[in-house]
Amino acid sequence: MSTALRTHLERLLPELNAYARSICERREDGEDMVQEAVTRALTAADPPGAIEELRPWMFRVVRNLRTDAARRSKVRRDYCEREAGVRENDVAHANSHGDMLVRMAFEALPPQTREILFLIDVMGLKYDEAASVLGVPCGTVMSRISRARRALRERIDGPDR
Questions:
Q1: What are the boundaries of each domain within the chain?
Q2: Does 94 score more than 80 pLDDT?
Q3: What is the pTM of this model?
Q4: How is residue 45 annotated by DSSP?
Q5: Residue 50 DSSP label
Q6: Which one-letter DSSP state was computed for residue 160?
Q7: What is the torsional sign of CA 32, 38, 39, 41?
Q8: 89-161 maps to which CATH number?
């Protein structure tokens, strides 16, 4: 890690913190985002060297982190709402039977299959994020999610469909 990069990041911290606070509902979330952005800059293979290039790059990293967090939050909220509906046994909804079949099929899958479906389809992680969580290459994640989705469909629709 270069000393120049560290110096540039230290100079940018007040601006990054102000930006992150302006796009986050809670101050703590903004601080966490800046910390994650700095970590990514320090571990990036080839971050911009000049501060003029690093500054917009860092703002994009913070913005992308916020977008990812919002997407994950929505996926979690939607998932929790669906789970709450299943737990309440809401028979009034026409699709509750289908939801129950999907849930039962999901729970009948092997743990490794459930895990990849949960990370990608429920939690909304990107393939590279799931690969990082699982400690496997991105290509492995792509093949696992394909097989997992096929297995879930077969459990729901039957193997002949």
A1: 1-75, 89-161
A2: no
A3: 0.52
A4: S
A5: S
A6: T
A7: positive
A8: 1.10.10.10
